[in-house]
UniProtKB/TrEMBL annotation:
Catalyzes the conversion of N5-carboxyaminoimidazole ribonucleotide (N5-CAIR) to 4-carboxy-5-aminoimidazole ribonucleotide (CAIR). It is an enzyme of class 5 (isomerase). One of its GO terms (molecular function) is 5-(carboxyamino)imidazole ribonucleotide mutase activity. GO terms for biological process: 'de novo' IMP biosynthetic process. Keywords: Isomerase, Purine biosynthesis. Pathway: Purine metabolism; IMP biosynthesis via de novo pathway; 5-amino-1-(5-phospho-D-ribosyl)imidazole-4-carboxylate from 5-amino-1-(5-phospho-D-ribosyl)imidazole (N5-CAIR route): step 2/2. Belongs to the AIR carboxylase family. Class I subfamily. Residues 2-153 form the PurE domain. Signal peptide: none annotated. Substrate binds at residues 10, 13, 40. This is N5-carboxyaminoimidazole ribonucleotide mutase. Pfam families: AIRC. The lineage of its organism: Bacteria, Pseudomonadati, Pseudomonadota, Gammaproteobacteria, Alteromonadales.
Length: 163
């Protein structure tokens, strides 16, 4: 199976983006992570997406903070689904990143997830669900994950809560 590509604009985004890698790892979906900056290495961004097309990468998860141009720029170079994860910034706590990623122009789609590690984890889950549409073994692992989540909630459903 060709790995899901996890891209981030800076090494400092890894503490957030590792949640995507962990989710993919848990679901036994191969992944590869790289640092590619939309602003500092636009040539690397383009060649990375050209190679991803050739390799048959099934999905790209892109984390970016601040101006957060990376997911949109990646989407401009490919028809591979791009899942954007807003990385929290110091100044605006990721709201700037969220708005930048979610406000793509018509015709260049980026799936945008929640700000931070929860969004990164869900990007990994969503990528696995997309792969699961054609790979039954991945779909089964996603279903098992969802069942385990349900069982955790049900195990605590009858707890008596303090008044």
């Amino acid at each position: 199976m060709t790995p899901v590509l996890i891209l981030m604009g800076s090494q400092s985004d890894w503490p957030v983006m590792q949640a995507a890698a962990q989710m993919l790892e848990d679901l036994q979906v191969p992944w590869q992570a790289k640092v590619v900056s939309a602003h500092r290495t636009p040539d690397l961004l383009q060649t990375t997406m050209e190679q991803a097309e050739k390799d048959g990468v099934p999905a790209v998860i892109a984390g970016a903070g601040g101006a957060a141009h990376l997911p949109g720029m990646l989407a401009a170079f490919t028809t591979i689904p791009v899942l954007g994860v807003p990385v929290p910034s110091k100044q605006l706590k990721g709201l700037d990143s969220l708005l930048s990623i979610v406000q793509m122009p018509k015709g260049v789609a980026v799936g945008t997830l929640a700000i931070g590690a929860a969004g990164a984890a869900n990007a990994g889950l969503l990528a696995a669900q997309m792969i699961g549409t054609t790979q039954p073994e991945v779909r089964e692992r996603v279903q098992q994950f969802r069942q385990a989540q349900r069982e955790k909630v049900m195990a605590n459903a009858d707890l008596e809560l303090p008044e």
